[in-house]
Design a protein that fits this description.
This protein is mainly beta and 161 residues long. Helices cover 14% and strands 36% of the residues. The N terminus is likely disordered.
Amino acid sequence: MSVAPMRVAAGSAACLLTAFATAALAQSYPAALQISPDGGGRCIDVPDRKFAQGQGLQMLDCNNSPGQTFTYDPASMRISIGGLCIDVAGGQPGDLVVLSSCNGGAKQTWKAEQKGGFTKFVGGNGLCLDIRYGSKESGALVQTWTCGEAEPNQLWSLQRK
């Protein structure tokens, strides 16, 4: 038996395994978005679980509630909760992020970039998901800000649910 057909078969099998592994990783999953310990260690929260158009987001102690269980979809690069998406309201540094009807627009796009053991979310406008003023306090607001290299208030851990 020739070695060439065996190499082709082995190469095809490796390609299929890679494709299946990539597809598995690209699936959406529910997760809490927890800031790095140096950023305060809290989770993004929908105040009073009020899933409504224009609702801002805050940081709160992680409690596994429905108001802290977001879904990140790597294919569409959207972060959603309660049927709404995290949206960059104004699109300028310091503008608060809000919940909005999912429309697939650039203001609802969040590219996940690995930074060590954490994830940085870069919006379609090139700004990062950020905690306002770098606050570590409960109730701190969530905004967009110019992306830094390793700012602790921009480094997130996705705690799968």
